[in-house]
Amino acid sequence: MRPPLAPLDGRLDRFEITVGSAVEFLRSAWEELREVTFDITAMPTHDRDDGIPRWRVDHAARRVSLYRVPIERMLPKGHDDALHRRIAIESAVFHAAAEYVGREPWELGPEIRDY
Predict the structure, then answer these.
(1) Largest interatomic CA distance in the chain
(2) Model confidence over 95-109: pLDDT tens digits?
(3) What top-level branch of life does the organism fall under (predicted)?
């Protein structure tokens, strides 16, 4: 008999679960996001003049890439705990999705579609 699997409780596991639940919510509300691939990579491979990017949107490839290390590590001092990391991850997902659909992040709730 095999021993039970360890629970998904590492930092990377929590990051992936948080991204997955935010993406699932957004896809249920925005048809434009249903065929978009959301992927997670550790760090960006390109430089920007205005700082370190937390995500990249590629309309041609229908892809949104989220950069885990900048999202998790660039929190304000005193905010490096599980709650603030989750807020930062969800915020990055919403900002990236909003950039993809040409909206503001706060416009992505399902109730906005009716107006």
Answers:
(1) 56
(2) 999 999 999 999 997
(3) Bacteria
Locate 18 and state its tokens. 């948080």
Confidence of residue 112 (pLDDT cuts 50, 70, 90): low
Is residue 41 predicted with pLDDT exceeding 90? yes
Query: Strand (E) positions, 1-115?
Result: 37-41, 55-58, 63-67
Residue 56 CA, chain-centre distance (Å), reads 10
CA Rg value for the chain:
15
Do the strands 63-67 and 37-41 form a parallel or antiparallel pair, or are they unpaired?
A: parallel
* Mean pLDDT across the chain: 89
List, for residues 27-39, the tens digit of each pLDDT value: 999 999 999 999 9
Nearest partner of 66 among 48, 90, 49, 82, judged by Cα: 90
How far is it, in rounded angstroms, from Cα 5 to Cα 14? Answer: 16
Which residues have a Cβ under 8 Å from the Cβ of 43 and sit 6 or more positions away?
67, 68, 69, 70
Domain boundaries along the sequence of the chain: 31-109
